[in-house]
Amino acid sequence: MRRITTAVRQHPARTFIILLGGIIAMTLFGLSRGSDSGALKVGQTAPDFSLRDQENRVQRLADYRGQWVVLYFYPKDDTPGCTTEACNFRDDIHLLHRLNAQVLGVSIDSTESHEEFAEKYHLPFPLLADREGNVSAQYGARFSLGPVQFSKRHTFLIDPDGRIARIYREVKPKQHSSRVIDALEALREEPG
């Protein structure tokens, strides 16, 4: 205890930064896990939306009826985890299309940011600009802390009738695309 007291006295700024970082980490961890208890559930109709993509075209969820939709929310264009996740969907796009699935990425970034991200990594699917965070909020995927706002890394598999078939609230970017493909294959085999 004496060492801690001495360290705090000798380095108050460093101690403050460490404590602040810990508080922020606990807040982010807690909000990203436990805040979705009243959120959407498997079997419910997925909320429809209308958002612009990286080419400034309006995309509506209803336009994809008749096929599976992989609706994935992510925090920020061109960041390590988000790039890994997007590039894995890109690399698996032919498998996803064979399963009659369309990938739609959603973040709070602008259409211009999405355009740069899509061009840089040759992403062959729409990236939707949820600038106000309303769609992210509808899906329980928005994080807000004062002026800081972003989409949480959540994914929804939506069936051809527009119902939510799977929800992923804990996503590991490296394995996520293959996990989604496995789920789509299993869901297509279920009687229904």
TrEMBL record:
Residues 40-189 form the Thioredoxin domain. InterPro entries: AhpC/TSA (IPR000866), Peroxiredoxin_BCP/PrxQ (IPR050924), Thioredoxin-like_sf (IPR036249), Thioredoxin_domain (IPR013766). It is an enzyme of class 1 (oxidoreductase). CDD domains: PRX_BCP. One of its GO terms (molecular function) is thioredoxin-dependent peroxiredoxin activity. Pfam families: AhpC-TSA (PF00578). It catalyses: a hydroperoxide + [thioredoxin]-dithiol = an alcohol + [thioredoxin]-disulfide + H2O. PROSITE patterns: THIOREDOXIN_2. Thiol-specific peroxidase that catalyzes the reduction of hydrogen peroxide and organic hydroperoxides to water and alcohols, respectively. Plays a role in cell protection against oxidative stress by detoxifying peroxides and as sensor of hydrogen peroxide-mediated signaling events. This is thioredoxin-dependent peroxiredoxin. It comes from Thiohalorhabdus methylotrophus.
